[in-house]
């Protein structure tokens, strides 16, 4: 039976641990100034598109390191401790270089927007945003995740990743169909991702919707997946209450069964005693009656005559 409380607690603890460990290393707030210096003056729409690409690349890069980084290291015979030491040295060297950076350098010349978008993965994502230090931390976290996340259940790591991947993939597919469609209201990935979340959760705000045939086909698939996901989640939550009621009934049945067994044992002993008496001779029955009378007499309190004679 699924222990939903323990699994939800494990997911929350793992999420807090991963975010708390990776946020200082990735340091998006501190990297913003570096990006402004590297990218230079560009249009706001290009900045937004570049940020979206970097976020997607960084997410999947860290996710792959978290899930399969240990297996890759084992395949090449590299110990996790070597990666930790190497990543720490890289982080220290990067911090030292930033502290000693010459602030009087001239700003770079303006770069073509197409060339900037082509460099979204390298070098803007790797190694500027997600460098060796972030990857080593992600691999270390993946090696020490709670065992509950590896067990097959609704809140296991594989199921959560599959759901998130389906969400991101659906948003990307609908954006391909809707970005240049006539009358479309989904123009960038943020709109597509919001629409995918609303569709999978079967909320249906109606502020974003596909107008092309391809986008509607993706919407049908996401709606079916969302209905199945909500159904499984509802059944899982219901199983918690059913389990509590079943455990209470089992405990009550166990106590009643123990009392019934004791009563049956007493009845069996009495029946055996009756059978023994019925099969005995009159002399044996008289002897047993005499013993019983003697035992009852010794248990009675002494009368006044007995007390006087004793004195």
Strand segment tally: 0
Question: Number of helical runs?
Answer: 12
β-strand percent reads under 5%
Structural class: mainly alpha
Query: How many distinct domains?
Result: 2
Biggest sheet record: none
Average per-residue pLDDT, rounded, comes to 75
State Rg: 38 Å
Helix content: over 70%
The run of helices and strands is HHHHHHHHHHHH
Determine the N-to-C terminus distance: 75 Å
Shape: elongated
Poorly predicted runs are 306-311
Polypeptide structure, described:
By secondary structure, this protein is mainly α. It has two domains: 1-147, no CATH class; 156-297, Helix Hairpins. Helix content is 77%, strand content 0%. It has twelve helices and no strands. The protein has helices at residues 4-26, 28-39, 44-76, 80-99, 113-118, 120-129, 132-143, 157-178, 189-200, 213-278, 282-299, 304-310. Helix 1 (4-26) packs antiparallel against helix 7, helix 3 crosses helix 6 (120-129) and helix 3 (44-76) packs across helix 7 (132-143). The longest helix is centred in the last third of the chain and has 66 residues, at 213-278. It is elongated and about 120 Å long.
Quick summary:
Helices cover 77% and strands 0% of the residues. It is mainly α.
List the helices and strands and how they pair.
Blueprint: H1 4-26, H2 28-39, H3 44-76, H4 80-99, H5 113-118, H6 120-129, H7 132-143, H8 157-178, H9 189-200, H10 213-278, H11 282-299, H12 304-310
Helix pairs in contact: 1-7, 3-6, 3-7, 4-7, 8-9, 8-10
List keywords for this structure.
single chain; 311 residues; mainly alpha; Helix Hairpins; 12 helices; 0% strand
